[in-house]
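Case 258 in the screening queue. Each case pairs one protein sequence with one candidate compound; here the compound is D-glutamic acid. For every case the pipeline is the same: read the inputs, emit a complex structure as tokens, and attach any notable structural observations.

Predict complex for case 258.
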Amino acid sequence: MINEYIGVLDSGVGGLSILSELYKIMPDKNYIYVGDTKNIPYGTKTPSEIYSYTKDILNYFLKNNVKNVVIACNTTSAVAYDKLKIEFENKLKIFPLIQSVASNAIEGLKNDDTIALLATRATVNSKKYEQEIHKINPKIKVISIDCTGFVEIVENRLYKEDKSIELIKSKLDIVKNNNAKRIILGCTHYPYLVDIFRKILDIEYFNPAISLAKKIKNEINFKGSGEIKFYSTINPEEFKKSAKMFFDIKDDVQLINF
Ligand code: DGL
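Case 258 output:
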């Protein structure tokens, strides 16, 4: 019998924050993870570039016994999911991130409360979080903050650099000045930074990974063996090092090109 896999994709190691939650609650499934490190960061690319990169990954999944795909990337969910959904309809079931978790992000908030979104430039420009949140409650105020540069801190492990801390502080100052009640970690790379965030600003942090994993659990039924294959599109060794916080990858990360 051929093994079935869940395909999980991101521009780099960020999506591992989603994979780790999926694996915690569905350890009996098989996974193929692709980090498109050749094209990272997605957050400063155009929607059509992001669509083209992710379309290639989905075509690869299709050929490799994947039936369910998790877009473990806010940016792709924001700017390319709608097109991908049409393109791959009837071939793949695709779970987007933002659209799946927006209702959980505002749970417990009241009208006129402010929620801050930290995200990539492409996600902020798309206004996808605002749209999804306002479908549920148009009275919640959403402050969207372009955090260009955070992804590089994670991918290149620049956590301790003064420049990194200054950049993070400048973004969290905006949150503070707007009296936000909660922060959405609106890029899958940002859970890697949350301990640093907490030291600077003691506020509630919403990590979409947990809600997304819970939603998907009821919709995927095949039985696997817990196998995970990791791929990156450039520098697999670097990928493995940067991945450490969410996944201590034992096997080699394979280089893949589309
Ligand atoms: N981790 C991705 C996200 O959730 C993309 C980061 C990037 O490549 O800019 O948005």
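Case 258 observations:
- The chain is about 45% helix and 20% strand.
- Residues 5-97+211-255 form a domain with the Rossmann fold fold (CATH 3.40.50.1860).
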